[in-house]
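Recall the central idea of this unit: under ordinary conditions, the amino acid sequence of a chain determines the structure it adopts. In this exercise we apply that idea directly, starting from the sequence alone.
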Amino acid sequence: QVRLVESGGGLVQAGESLRLSCADSGRTFTVAGSVVAWFRQAPGKAREFVAGIDRKGTTTDYSDYVKGRFAIVRAEGTVILQMNRLKPEDTAVYYCAADVSLRITPARDRGAYGYWGQGAQVTVSE
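Accordingly, the structure predicted from this sequence is:
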C-alpha cells in the first residue's frame, strides 16, 4: 500500500528555519505525479491547510498564516516545505498529503487528499 513519509521536523527557536520533506514509500509516481499539500494540526485544534503545489510545480497556494514565510517546492521526486521565520504558533504536527485525482490545482479541503503521511512534529519555542 502506498504511504507518504515526512522527515525534517524538530525543535527550533522562534525566528529560525526548518525544512520538511515528503516522499512516497517507494512508488515515486505518488508524489511526483500528484497534487501535494501540507496540513498541520496543533493540540486541541482541527487539522488545517498550510500549503499546496500542483503536479508541475508551477502553481502553489498558501494559507494566510504562512504566506511570505513558508515555501513549497518540488525537488527530485519529493515535495519540500521550507519554513522560515518560525513562530511559536507554528508548533504542530505537520502532515503531507497527496491527491491522485484529476484535480489540477491544490485543494484546501483535507477530504480531497487520499494519501497521508504519519506526521512530523515541529516545535517552536519562544
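The first strand starts at residue 4 and ends at 7.
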